Amino acid sequence: MSEAVAQLNETLLSMLQSETFVLLNTVDAESGGPTSTAISWIYAVSPSVIRLAIDHRSRLVNNIKVNPLVTVTIFGGGTVYAVNGRASVKQDPLADVPFKMCCFDIEIEAVRNALFYGASLESAPKYAKVYDARAAEKLDGQVFAAMKKAQ
Asked: What pLDDT score was predicted for residue 10?
């Protein structure tokens, strides 16, 4: 592990300007235990703020509202990064999307290289959308546009 910094480097900032997937780690509101979920509706507003959108049917919305401390795990740039921060509601519900979503901003408190010493990530994980590609593209476009306009 390396020393923590309080903002995204250029590699992470660039990665989070286009669609990627990350792990969002929260504290479960019911059990108090850790939970981790893969999400892709995420982008960097600035080097110090990450924005994400979550479907209201997900437990994550309540988890974050009850305990705003989160970690975003990002795979890229030859390593694994842990981005720690405090999430707050940016817009709820998120406007101009076809179902109820909550938009959160994460104020970054620390960014750390979380890969064990002496290792390098040879490739970032890849995913494929297994439902209607046109519907997925349309929905992603709507969600990202709404996230960028959120106030």
From this structure: 94
Do residues 53 and 101 make contact, with C-beta atoms less than 8 angstroms apart?
A: yes
CB 91, CB 143: distance < 8 Å: no
What pLDDT sits at residue 2? Answer: 58
CA dihedral of residues 129, 131, 134, 135 (deg, nearest 10) = -110
41, pLDDT greater than 90: yes
The side-by-side arrangement of strands in the sheet containing 101-113 is 34-39, 22-27, 69-76, 79-91, 101-113, 49-55, 42-46
DSSP codes joined into one string, 112-129 = EE-SPTT---SS------
Give the Å distances, CA to CA, from 109 to 50, 57, 69, 70, 80: 11, 28, 10, 10, 17
Query: How many Å apart are CA 114 and CA 1, to the nearest integer?
Result: 5
Dihedral of CA 129/103/56/76: which sign? positive
Token pair of 101, please? 């979503």
**pLDDT per residue as tens digits for the range 67-120:** 999 999 999 989 999 999 999 999 999 999 999 999 999 999 999 999 999 999
